[in-house]
Amino acid sequence: MNRPLLYHAATGLLGLSFAVRSVPDILSGESSIVLWMAAIAGVGLVLGSIYEILTGGREDFEPSRRITLIVVAGAVISALGVVVSSLG
After folding, report:
1. CB under 8 Å to 43, separation ≥6 — which residues?
2. How high is the pLDDT of residue 64?
3. What is the mean pLDDT of each run of 10 residues along the chain (88 residues)?
4. Helix, strand, coil % over all residues of the chain, rounded to 5
5. How many of the other CB atoms lie within 10 Å of CB of 82?
6. Which residues touch 44 (CB under 8 Å, ≥6 apart)?
7. Can you tell me the distance from the alpha carbon of 51 to that of 45, in angstroms, rounded to the nearest whole number?
8. Residue 88 covered by a domain
9. What is the spatial distance between Cα 46 and Cα 41, in angstroms, rounded to a whole number?
10. Cα dist. 25→8, 87, 88 in Å?
11. Does residue 87 sit within a domain?
12. Where are the beta strands (DSSP E) in the chain?
């Protein structure tokens, strides 16, 4: 298992879940500090993850098995939360 790749992909998924919920609200004209912070954090996480995956920066970084598991679990829970809130 390539833990650095899994870690960065899960971090990107976390960022995507923040951005998917906040960016459309900002574009529709709503504005609050929470929306802006979620949008900036989400887009930053996605861009940072893409950069690390594409540039090979993951070779210098070896997350522990426990940290990788925590980040992947958080990403899955966050993505499921976005899906459930979008359905209801």
Report:
1. 15, 19, 23
2. 93
3. 91 96 92 94 96 82 93 97 89
4. 85, 0, 15
5. 17
6. 15
7. 10
8. no
9. 9
10. 26, 17, 17
11. no
12. none
Q: Any idea which residue has 């790749």 for tokens?
A: 5
Q: Would you say residue 8 lies in a domain?
A: yes
Q: How confident is the model at residue 60, as a pLDDT? A: 79
Q: What is d(CA 13, CA 27) in angstroms, rounded to the nearest whole number? A: 21
Could you tell me the residue range of the domain that residue 41 belongs to? 3-80
The token duo for 79 is: 């993505």
- If one counts the domains in the chain, the total is 1
SS (H, E, C) 16-81: HHHHHHHHHHHHCCCCCHHHHHHHHHHHHHHHHHHHHHHHCHHHHCCCCHHHHHHHHHHHHHHHHH
Residue among 46, 51, 58, 49 nearest 22 (CA)? 46
CA distance 69 to 65: 6
